[in-house]
Design a protein that fits this description.
Methan_mark_8; alpha/beta; Methanogenesis marker protein 8; about 35% helix; globular; about 280 residues
């Protein structure tokens, strides 16, 4: 029996067992402009969340052995899109991220980065799914026996695999600090930290992320947005801003913006409600 816990749209806690949604919590966010735009949802409810996760299961095998792992670039904008552009351009060698059924994984192909990262909500915990492990290859998974999620160990594995320019996706300020310390211990390695899923983050952790990360998504975080605007970091997007905190972070975002032909200005951008 496989079991997966995610924090999905509205930061709603969802549990999936053997391809079935078995638990759905209450959304912490009432309104998300992304799901309004693509799904016409004006107010998130537990029913909306359940239907969305069931759609993902039926559409691309989310949390099942039928998972479609690859996805073409549809010229949208986000963290996974920015990462696949940087890998395609040779600016990043490998991406340490997470995949349901595998845990922490090391990816080098743009279509895998997009197909996995672009379709995984905040993954809290997961257990192995044999068919997905086989598709990705045990050599690219931190622990195929347990599907452990540990981004610090994942970066260490990527270093052992010989990669020199490594990006890692994180949700934890503590992990960001530890990874910068790891980078200091490996002077020939460059590590780029991309942070997402920051809704409800504390002010202290938000400040720490801006100290250590290269790219941070605003999500529905009040603290991240306030710091990002107050410090005038490079920002891409308005409804869900993404901040280029470092020169490298700004460079990666601008590469993606150039590839998709620029971002359109919005007259009255809608934002998540409430910001937490």
């Amino acid at each position: 029996m496989d079991e997966h816990v995610i924090e999905a749209l509205g930061k709603t806690r969802v549990k999936i067992k053997d391809g079935k949604v078995v638990e759905v919590g209450e959304p912490k966010i009432e309104y998300c402009p992304i799901f309004d735009k693509y799904r016409g949802i004006k107010k998130l409810t537990a029913k909306d969340v359940r239907e969305n996760i069931e759609f993902r299961i039926n559409d691309f095998g989310f949390c099942t052995g039928e998972r479609t792992l690859r996805m073409q670039d549809f010229l949208s904008f986000g963290v996974s899109e920015t990462l696949n552009t940087a890998v395609e351009a040779g600016k990043i060698d490998a991406v340490v991220t997470v995949c349901e059924g595998c845990g922490t994984v090391i990816l080098t192909e743009p279509e895998l980065i997009q197909g996995i990262g672009g379709r995984v909500s905040g993954l809290v915990s997961t257990t192995p799914i044999g068919d997905v492990v086989k598709l990705l290859g045990v050599e690219n998974i931190l622990d195929p026996e347990t599907a452990e999620i540990n981004q610090i160990k994942g970066v260490k594995k990527a270093i052992k695999m010989g990669f020199k320019k490594i990006a890692v996706t994180l949700v934890s300020a503590a992990d960001a600090k530890s990874i910068r310390e790891l980078e200091e211990q490996n002077p020939n390695i460059e590590i780029y930290i991309f942070v997402a899923h920051v809704t409800q983050i504390s002010e202290e952790d938000a400040e720490s992320l801006f100290k250590y990360a290269d790219v941070i998504t605003g999500c529905a975080s009040k603290c991240i947005r306030e710091i990002g605007e107050d410090q005038a970091y490079f920002r891409a997007g308005e409804s869900i801003p993404i901040y280029g905190v470092t020169e490298d972070g700004e460079k990666f975002l601008k590469m993606r913006i150039k590839k998709i032909g620029g971002l359109k200005d919005k007259k009255d951008p809608k934002i998540p409600k409430p910001l937490l």
